[in-house]
Amino acid sequence: MAAAPSKPSDQPIGSRGLGVLVASLEWLGAAILAVLFLVVMAAVTRRYLVGGGLVWSDELAIWLNVALVAVGAPLAATSALAMRLDVVVNLLPAPGRRIAAILAEAIAVHGALVLALGGASVVALVGGTSTVLGLPESLRFASFAIGGGLTLVVVLWRAALAQSWPAALVALVLGAALYVLANSATGFFVATPSLVAGLAAAAGLLLGAPLPFALLAGASLSGAFGGLLPEPAIVQNTVAGVSKFLLLAIPFFLLAGELLTAGGLAERLVRFAAALVGHFRAGLAQTALVASVLFSGASGSSVANAAFGAKVMAPALVARGYPPANAAAIVAGVSMLDNIIPPSIAFLILAAATNLSVGSLLVGGFVAGAVLTAALAIGIHLSVRGVVDSAPRASGAERARSFVGALPAIGLGIVVVVGIRFGLVTVTEASALAVAYALVACLLLRSLNGTTVLASLRKAAGEAAAVGLLIGASAPFAFLLAVDRVSEQMAGLVTALGGGPLAVMVLSNLVLLIAGLFLDIGAAILLLAPLLLPAAIAAGLDPIQFGVVLVVNLMIHGLTPPLGILVFVVSGIMRLSPAAVFRAVLPLLASLLVALFVLCLAVAAWPSLPLSFKELFRWL
Question: Is 478 in contact with 525 (CB distance < 8 Å)?
């Protein structure tokens, strides 16, 4: 008989205390996200009702987003949002894993000290007030200093509970030693300090350190070897990296997806998808694919789709006779579409990193999404064997009823994409309207209550803070790459076989395929897109088309080891071995690689590939 779950009162005092601190940070993040939404919606409402926005709204929204990321920094270091690579560490014997865990926490300590002490230094140095709000500019950096201090507390507390207090003390001493080394003049000068930063970050990643803090620690250590980015400048770059109005769309799209799932609208999409394709061979698997396409128009987060599919679609697949690993592979494979089919958080990150047009990227995502959907449908059809799960063909009346039921969720995607594409709203305004739409639709259908709304806010705030911290931590890293003129070296690499469009496209994709094995998707976009895009433009490739292919390439790595975030999300929820799911996903991975090849060939050989609806219809 299984033991009853322990009550909070049965847990050690230290564990309860950490839980209270983490929950408090989560609720504070939820409150900040709620206020952020109200500020942006107030500005949107005034703009369309009165004809003028609120002068102070944009600046206040950016400051709130900075505060959200700072509050979420401890969560991004210690929770499932930490983006830790543990595949290599898990291969070690037990003593080796314990040592690696201490070293990983030491790197997290180093990164937290950079935020805490570097932020405090900036607070002492920066003067002046903000342009509109009139608040001291130092407040933005003070929030990161506080966030870094809280991260240090949470990291060490967690290490003490997971291992022991002596282990936590060792991690603190080692992290402090790395911090002192980074701020010391070693006398060793490296021609490309960004190489030191890259190697240090890679070492931290392999040891299982949280990715954003590994990037911060790497940028910090480069200073000891001639890097031109002192610690206060690292924090300034980090804060500047998240102080972009466009990035406000990320927490809103995450929140809209959470509300749709909590409100049951996502399940209506599944029923509509089943009515469309459930009668085909491997009908339930094809239903999962179509449902993912429909959910993509409302979420923009592949991780959110993977989590939903693992809870809803995967059990149904297993019940119909699919082996659990194959069911998990199907859910993970189709979930990658969410960051391709608009609205897409990956395209927002790309636009923030390269200043490419968000609207054009989103339309390009439709074209790429159609190709990838067809490839996945073929891959599912050819790979599913020994399972008879086709349902009777739905009647016209049944399809109509399921369509009407799914309209509230489908309408969200239409509102967002049409509004952005035709310039009716900005990306950030569209994302806020998506949240308002999801709230109103679910409340009218009486599928949401106050508890589920608060839970959605809490979860979305944590995810948004983790993504935001990754974007911020990548900014100083990108600065070092720019100072060392790595983009020119990268351009030389991708033109090694000639400067023609096809050669540049092939070599760029090889670089992305290799880098994507070891980098988180967001970090890869932030670091590699600014390096590869100039070479692509010089070769005559359209920057929008190249950006779409870049995102497709990196999203495929959601299914590849050792990171394979989509596989890890699904296998974790289903309690399966990730290795088994990685093996089961190979047929779908092969079909996606073929689709990538088709897209690359089309972009390289046909630079005039249409990227807007008007051009597409004219071409057809």
Answer: no
